[in-house]
Specification:
The complex is a heterodimer of chains A (198) and B (243). Chain A has 198 residues and is mostly helical. Chain A is 62% helix and 0% strand. Classes of the chains: A mainly alpha (198), B alpha+beta (243). The A-B interface holds A 27-28, 31-32, 34-35, 39, 42-43, 45-47, 50-51, 56, 59-60, 63-64, 67-68, 71, 117-118, 120, 124-125, 127-128, 132, 135-136, 139, 153-155, 157, 159-160, 175, 178-179, 182 and B 3-4, 7-8, 11-12, 15, 17, 35, 38-39, 42-43, 45-47, 49-52, 54-60, 63-64, 66-67, 70-71, 74-77.
């Protein structure tokens, strides 16, 4: 299917357009800049969309539309971090699509109950030997807001500041949400390890 | 720091996102807490698995083609300009990289100076300036045995107007260091010492109103920090280097 999202979706940090250098450039420079600053992040954009949407076709559609959107709003890009800016657009598009699909099912994740993750028993350490498959399943099982932050931090290796900019979260929330996501991930992996041995 | 507080911060510590003072506290806690150390190790192993590449999705080649097609024909600069643009880009790249490297160098040495000043200030604020109080270098030097994994050079400069007051342990540049405490009138001088093969990065800087002098000698890095004026601190360092 073709993913669509309305034009009212906010472009992450589109408003922070300082009168910075090089934004008032001739069209050819604009094209060259977009080529150099935004296009190289295609893999990051696709990876995030693929993880959030769980479907190759949806991910391709959303990334395609996000690049068109990024191109259209490139004037408002503040020139600092092209990847975080692009990923902001992609994640907004993904969440718009997810909300549309599941009918506002999204729960404010920072209030979700989480099990304590203080356990470092030898049993827990065994999880280290778990294969990639269990890890993949457990990341897929995370709520999208947690999955997003794990993908941005662990797979895309964004700093907290970059995550804060891409996901539009306060830096403190980045830290606490990442903590919760990691605890959930461990709990899931621990459950899988137990289940596997029984 | 309690273990539950440490657990809250452990992820940010692992990600290198804590400020210097919280990072120091975490480092000290983890050194003493087996549970937290194991948790850190687990995080590291988990990360290696995650970043091994097996989990990331690559964009299909067709997607890039589709995007490029939708964006319209590529507008590239006319070919007459290309060689100049290439040269300009190369020059810019080299300058940016040089500036970055210079910044990195300065940052590294600044960090040491800042850490030394922080340790000095922290000791003054808590009133805990010495772990061992002694003006006798034959008492101070052996005190470090078993507390740090090297033997710091300890000299007394009482004859030159800088009496040795004692010693303590600190944590700088990611390791335990020996700190010698000297006096000058009502001023305290901290000398931080640790083994280092890295020489250079010497000299005097001032940070937060404190003077900081760095030098290396006999395989040791030394950093002197004090609110003493620059001339007297230099005099002190010169005396210390003579011994």
């Amino acid at each position: 299917m073709r993913a669509t999202f309305s034009d009212t979706v906010t472009v992450s940090h589109a408003s922070v357009s300082e009168p910075s250098l090089g934004r008032t450039m001739p069209t050819s420079r604009f094209a060259a800049d977009f080529e150099q600053v935004i296009l190289p992040h295609l893999n990051s954009a696709y990876n995030l969309a693929r993880w959030l949407l769980g479907d190759d076709g949806d991910a391709q559609d959303v990334v395609h539309d996000s690049f068109l959107r990024a191109h259209r709003y490139f004037d408002s890009f503040d020139g600092s971090d092209g990847r975080a800016w692009l990923l902001g657009i992609v994640r907004n598009a993904c969440f718009t699509l997810l909300r549309g699909k599941k009918g506002q099912q999204s729960t404010p994740v920072d209030t979700l109950d989480v099990a304590s993750g203080g356990d470092t028993s030898p049993e827990r350490m065994l999880i280290l030997e778990e294969d990639l498959g269990a890890l993949r399943n457990c990341i897929e099982a995370l709520p999208p807001e947690y999955r997003e932050i794990v993908v941005l931090r662990e797979l895309e290796e964004l700093s907290y500041k970059e995550i804060s900019s891409a996901a539009g979260l306060p830096p403190g929330t980045v830290m606490s949400r990442l903590n919760r996501a990691r605890i959930r991930l461990e709990t899931c992996l621990k459950g899988k390890a137990k289940g596997g041995r029984q | 720091m309690t273990c539950s507080v440490a657990r809250e911060l452990l992820g940010a510590y692992f990600d290198g996102e804590l400020d210097a003072s919280a990072e120091l506290q975490l480092r000290l806690h983890v050194a003493d807490c087996e549970g937290c150390a194991a948790e850190l190790q687990r995080m590291q192993m988990r990360r290696e698995l995650m970043r091994g590449g097996g989990l990331s999705y690559q964009a299909p080649a067709a997607l890039e083609a589709r995007i490029r097609k939708s964006l319209g024909p590529r507008r590239t600069p006319s070919s007459g300009w290309r060689p100049f643009l290439a040269i300009a880009a190369a020059v810019l790249f080299v300058s940016v990289v040089s500036v970055r490297l210079m910044q990195m160098r300065t940052q590294t040495s600044d960090t040491i100076a800042e850490q030394a000043v922080s340790s000095h200030v922290r000791a003054l604020m808590t009133g805990h300036t010495t772990d061992i109080i002694s003006t006798d270098r034959h008492t101070v030097k052996p005190w470090f045995n078993g507390r740090v994994d090297f033997s710091p050079p300890v000299v007394d400069l009482a004859g030159q107007g800088f009496p040795l007051l004692g010693g303590r342990l600190d944590y700088i540049a990611g390791r335990s260091v020996a700190t010698l405490v000297y006096g000058r009138r009502k001023h305290l001088i901290d000398v931080f010492i640790w083994p280092s093969t890295h020489d250079g990065a010497g000299g005097t800087v001032s940070a937060q109103g404190y003077n900081v002098v760095r030098w290396t000698r006999g395989g040791m890095s030394l950093v002197a920090v004090s609110d003493l004026n620059k001339a007297e601190l230099d005099q002190f360092v010169n005396q210390l280097r003579k011994e």
